[in-house]
Write a structure and sequence with these properties.
The chain has 192 residues and is an alpha/beta fold. The chain has helices spanning 15-28, 44-51, 56-62, 94-101, 108-118, 134-145, 164-178, and strands at 3-9, 34-40, 67-69, 86-92, 122-127, 149-150. The protein has a six-stranded parallel sheet with strand order 3-2-1-4-5-6, with helices on both faces. The structure holds flavin mononucleotide.
């Protein structure tokens, strides 16, 4: 049976992390059965277009990744009974993180995260903001206590990356590790 993963994209900076994570997950399907669906926040398409150019929905469709958004609570992962395995929010804005921390499920993305937490499944939040306020830090502690993993979009340099893609891969390889996906996304020098 395929493991079912929801990939959520918010309006935080770092659309490139989302694109690289989708590509790494699709490549990882050669090693294990994975089913991937995507959910977008209302702001995600604007930031994607600003940072990468193009339409995120069209790009996901070109990769045959089903994409949902808005308040489409009929999406399969909006209910615990559909038994999705994991969810990664990449990049994760402080707004979505705050809503997830406080159980505010006012769009499909935050509802899906709420479901993953209540079902005690794997939730990974690739948080992106700097600097962090006490509110952000409190919310990160709250979601961590609720069972989520906060994995900041903080690339590493000890592998001496020389391109943006290599830098991005230092984060994406950690994301796939925490999703327990067998992958060959390059680590650029090995993770510490
Ligand atoms: C170009 C751009 C970059 C942004 N970067 C960030 C960011 O890194 N972190 C963050 O928390 N919000 C960032 N924002 C603000 C969020 O998009 C905004 O708070 C939005 O309401 C988040 O909602 P969402 O989580 O539903 O996408 C950015 C906005 C824009 C337009």
């Amino acid at each position: 049976m395929s493991r079912k993963i929801v990939l959520a994209i918010t309006g935080a900076s770092g659309a490139i992390y989302a694109r690289a994570t989708v590509e790494a997950l699709l490549a990882a399907r050669a090693r294990q059965p994975l089913a991937l669906s995507a959910v977008l926040s209302a702001t995600a398409p604007e930031v994607w277009a600003h940072e990468l150019g193009g339409d995120v929905r069209e790009w996901l469709a070109s990769k045959d990744v089903p994409v949902f958004g808005g308040r489409d609570y009929a999406a399969p992962f909006a209910s615990g009974s559909a038994r999705w395995d994991s969810m990664v929010v990449v990049p994760c804005s402080m707004s979505s993180l705050a809503k997830i921390a406080h159980g505010i499920s006012d769009d499909l993305l935050t509802r899906a995260a709420d479901v993953i937490l209540k079902e005690r499944r794997r939730l990974l939040l690739v948080a992106r903001e700097t600097p962090l306020s006490a509110i952000h830090l409190d919310n990160m502690l709250t979601v961590t206590r609720a069972g989520a993993v906060v994995l900041p979009a903080a690339p590493s340099f000890y592998g001496r990356p020389t391109t943006i893609d290599e830098l991005v891969s230092t984060v994406v390889s950690r994301v796939l590790d925490h999703l327990a996906v067998d992958h060959d996304a390059p680590r650029w020098g090995g993770e510490k």
